[in-house]
Input
Amino acid sequence: MLNSEEERVFTVLRTIRKIYQFFVDKPVKKGMVLNDRYKVLRVIGTGSYGIVYLCKELTTKENIVVKQLRPSKRRNKKEVEMFEKEISVLHMLNHPNIPRLYETFSSDSCPFYAMSFIEGDNLEDQIFYNKKMFNEKESLHILAQLLELIHYLHEKDIYHRDLRIPNLLLKNKEIFLIDFGLSEHRAAVDSLHFPSHSTSNKPYSILEMKHQDYYDLGEILLYLLYTTYSSKNKKALPWTEELSLEKETVYLLKRLLQIKEPYSNTSEISADLQAAIRANDKD
Output
């Protein structure tokens, strides 16, 4: 866990970033109606190339999420392609724990898309501001849910590539995955042909993207496990020394983090994850 000074710095930097982004790309005003059907309630998220709004659908009265490409990015070919790629990925997905794409539209020459609203608490906020902690068993069960979602994506040849605590929502102990802005689909990757000797702008291979998602799962698990850790040493030590974990959990982490042989597929991860959960159930 962060100490009070680190938390203060984290909060200040986050606020400065939001203020800067607000003036560079001023969000749509509250109360405005987008595409004649989505009334803007408030901004709920900002990223490097997008602004996310909570809206009210005027006919159904349902809460809807609308994402806008930042106006300053609309003439940037790369940023527009990333936005369109995110839309194409969401279009392929149909899972209750992943946002569902409704439609795309434009306003003032700026692209938008609408998706389902998932009512949940951002896991990062829960940990930093609500001081929520997860013991080893709870952390493993969260990983099990997340692994099911990654298995679903990989079965569709989709790789998230941005698995982080801020991109996870928690509702009634259930995990939801959001933000597919960096996701890749195999077809898009296979269509990129670079000379074998070229290192410039070389795309990730399918194996590299798969291993990145697995590595990120390890980072998330480690992050959750550290929520219950209280440092007693002035000198930082490796996690293998700081955390007291079942040997099955240590083995799982070492393979996810590629300290030992990396996993080849989600089935391998699931087998070791279940072994770690069983070891914790004995306690």
Remarks:
- DSSP finds nine helices and eleven strands in the chain.
